[in-house]
């Protein structure tokens, strides 16, 4: 960790820190609720080190928990161009009328045809400036809808593990990289704070607390580094969300809310600002745009200079965020998607 100096919340460099590579979690803890849990109470300034299984002991009495029930799809597929060269395609999200936003490893141009197993083909119809591509999918030369595409991906696709895990996906990842309550297919990255929950832990929490859900299909943009000098210059990615009526009612009330994960925090805060129950969420929470509705946050430890660490700083400020991250590093917490968790009270 760099030496503490005056930090400017506007500057992206203020959100930087050094993480020893060995602290990047390549595999989850088994069972997942044995992960470490750092608890920070903003009122008392107290820091407690626990294990995730202890979470119920720290939950405020009257708090409601909101989870993201999106389901990670097998979004990574390998194939070849009609000219013969190998390609790797990562589905990001559907757009409209059989148009999909994707990322492709391998040189392509507009009109390139990509060939995959199960008679699946993709035609590149647009190259976007940010490096993404827009494609149309066909099976047996006929256009297909999202549901049919999901069915094919389930057969030929791979779990889209984050780039920093830096290994091939395995059979175990199909279970490990998916919350136990995942329901609606569409995410290409897991809402990782949810990965720590076991059925037993969830049942225990349900006995004392009300639980609600939102759906936000996490996109590949969640891993996109902030490359501008100032956070105000960063163009936030957008992701499709839906909020059921009972969760809307909770957000519209003055009851206390714990957001389980950054995706829930952004969705709740977007709704609090717009009152739109579904659509595209592109809210960028940071110290200059702090939360107005979420009271508490449960989250993992995030990449330096990412929008996710900026979101954490929107709750507790940059200085405290970097201080807690330094403590976590000193205590050998495991970082990122398969890593340990932090509860902000």
Quick synopsis:
This protein has helices spanning 55-58, 146-156, 173-176, 199-208, 245-252, 262-274, 307-316, 318-330, and strands at residues 36-40, 47-51, 64-68, 70-72, 76-81, 86-94, 100-105, 113-115, 120-127, 133-139, 142-143, 184-187, 211-216, 239-242, 257-260, 278-281, 296-300, 341-344. It has 345 residues and is α+β, with helices and mostly antiparallel strands.
Q: What would you say the CATH architecture of the largest domain is?
A: 3-Layer(aba) Sandwich
| Overall mean pLDDT | 95
CATH class of the largest domain: Alpha Beta
Straight-line distance between termini: 24 Å
Structural class: alpha+beta
Task: Describe the main β-sheet briefly.
Answer: 9 strands, mixed
At the fourth level of CATH, the homologous superfamily of the largest domain is QueA-like
Structural description of this entry:
It is built from eight helices and 18 strands. The protein is globular, with a radius of gyration of 20 Å. The two termini are 24 Å apart. It is of the alpha+beta class and 345 residues long. The protein has two domains: 233 residues, 3-Layer(aba) Sandwich (QueA-like), CATH 3.40.1780.10; 82 residues, QueA-like (Thrombin, subunit H, Beta Barrel), CATH 2.40.10.240. The protein has a nine-stranded mixed beta sheet with strand order 2-1-18-17-15-3-13-14-16, covered by helices on one side.
